[in-house]
Amino acid sequence: MVRLPLHKNLVALYLGLQPESLSRALAKLREYGVRTVPDGIEISDPDALIAMVGNSFQTHAHPPTAAAPV
Question: What is the rounded radius of gyration, in angstroms, for the C-alpha atoms of the chain?
Answer without folding.
Answer: 16
